[in-house]
Amino acid sequence: MKSLEADLVQAGLDDHQLNLLRQQHTHLRGEGRSAELGSLALRSRFLNLDDLVDSGSQEDSNVIGDHFTLQTILPLEFCRRFVCVPTEFSKGVLTLRCAQPLKAAQQDRIRQILRAPVSALKFLPSSRQEVCDLLLRIEQSGSVNGLITVLRHEGLEAGRLRSLVYAVLKEALSLRASDIHLSRKGDPDAWIAYRVDSVMRQTHLLPELLMQSLVARIKIEAGMDASNSRTAQDGRLTVEHEGRVVDFRISTQPLVDGESVVLRALDASLLPSLGALFPGQPKMTELIKSITNQTGKTGGLVFISGATGSGKSTTQYTVACGFRRDAMNVITVEDPVEYILPFAKQIQLQALVKQKAIELERSILRQDPDILIFGEVRDADSARAALAFAESGHLVISTIHANSVLQVSERFLSMIDPAHRTDSEFLLAHFLRVVIHQRLVRRLCSCAKPVQGEMLEHFQSQAVRLTGGLIQPRTGLRHKVGCTRCAGLGYSGRVAAHETMHVPAEETMRGRFVKAFKSHNLELPVDLCEENGVDYTSRLQTLQTLLDQGMVDWPSVLQILGVAGD
């Protein structure tokens, strides 16, 4: 335990946080439950996964022994073909039980189809019957396809339906899916689809009756009304996967020919660190740290903007995790609450009683907050509440729908009724601190290769012709290839391409910005310069950094810029 605690301290935990984790660990043991300190540090967002891996405190957690996860590494159809089954994956070594020795060609074939970076194979002899029995149990108890087969042929038994619900959730997490889409329609349109790296993949086609039963079971598990398919509903359920707890936010929507069910994965343990959120951008990392290290109640507004699905909430929660929530009073106001944030007080607006953000102002201020995390500014009430909290000396971090940094203030003020607009403009000019606008770009898989020779020259000429040379492919550029890890797509995950406006808090610098803002002189990005006291980072600068580091490819950059390549 002592060496593990030392690893956690080395990873960035302080004595106070370590003491809190010890108390949680002792409490859970008293309840007959087990939880490692490293897992508790992740759950409390004191550390992120990168910190734990770098410190070595997660050494033993790299062992994978559950059959469902192992099946994603080596698909069942290949296990049946070679009469073998994976039983453990640890430190790059995959252990397989085999009914007969595998020939060199068969071993090479297995290495080609593996869906994980395996450095070695270890074979354990076993009887054919043992391997076949184990494969059958895996099919019938864990895999989505196996459960679908059993339910189709042996009836819609409630226990198996429940197993199918959680098998779908775990399969989605194994595939890194952000959303699960279920279409409750007639045959042959009842699909389960996963959204991976912003791309929808239709994965499982179900019989109509089975899909109806599956949707009803999901509603039951999420505490929703399973008999109601005529009105939209919201729910939530939780699944344990690979030692971590993952929440799913559920939304149903009636359709003319059925019903749509969408489950959004909210895995707080995988919230990116600042370095992963803004890779290769130390200036941006320092800016966020300066926000989270703020002391005293000076007031301020931080807006994170972008379109739906652009990662605004992820960025907002990553910033929120940077605050010392064990030493500060952090309150969130959301509709609905997305990630559970330990040591924060999270408030969900109650639509059933038509509760509004502005009505919570007085009661929240009596809670003595230090930081307010405002889910989204979406109407006049939430806009006025955000201004009121900032004016009372609190730092407010919120999201807003806008198409650029400059449009944020225009969008915000458009929500305010004319009678309060002048006062609101004054407050916005004085308390605005940071505006981030982001779009997501597909991140290249590690299998990507450097762009050289004629291809590089072609991209460089494209840059001059299509962007006027404002952004330039250089020697760090890479192009997609595709491998088993990325399912041949060439991309793995996404990265934020942002533009950012930072207005310093110093009065001498801020005065010039307020004057320019109130006279409506900030109309173009070029106006956001030092003479107005503003530090501005353009999206072109961010994309250039991502290109130079080989994180994104040239076609993806052109797509973000809205330019058609040739």
Outline the secondary-structure elements.
Layout: H1 2-11, H2 15-30, H3 37-43, H4 49-55, H5 67-73, H6 76-82, E1 84-90, E2 93-98, H7 104-113, E3 120-125, H8 128-141, H9 144-154, H10 158-174, E4 179-184, E5 191-196, E6 199-205, H11 208-221, E7 233-241, E8 244-255, E9 258-266, H12 274-277, H13 282-292, E10 300-305, H14 312-321, E11 330-334, E12 345-348, H15 361-365, E13 371-374, H16 380-391, E14 395-400, H17 405-414, H18 418-431, E15 432-444, E16 449-450, H19 453-467, E17 478-479, E18 491-502, H20 507-518, E19 535-537, H21 539-548, H22 554-561
Parallel strand pairs: 2-3, 10-14, 10-15, 11-12, 11-13, 13-14
Antiparallel strand pairs: 1-2, 4-5, 4-9, 5-6, 7-8, 8-9, 15-18, 16-17, 18-19
Helix pairs in contact: 1-4, 8-9, 9-10, 10-11, 16-18, 18-20
Explain briefly what this protein structure is.
This protein has 566 residues and is an alpha/beta fold.
Give the CATH superfamily of the largest domain.
Answer: P-loop containing nucleotide triphosphate hydrolases
Overall 3D form: globular
> What is the number of E strands?
19
Q: Roughly what is the average pLDDT, rounded to an integer?
A: 83
Largest sheet: 8 strands, mixed
Strand content: 15-25%
The name of the CATH architecture of the largest domain is 3-Layer(aba) Sandwich
Structural class: alpha/beta
Major sheet strand order: 12-11-13-14-10-15-18-19
Return Rg in Å: 26 Å
The total count of helices amounts to 22
Task: Report the end-to-end length measured between terminal Cα atoms.
Answer: 59 Å
Model regions low in confidence, pLDDT < 50 over at least 5 residues: 58-66
Q: Name the helicity range.
A: 40-55%
What is the count of distinct domains? Answer: 4
CATH topology of the largest domain: Rossmann fold
Output the CATH class name of the largest domain. Alpha Beta
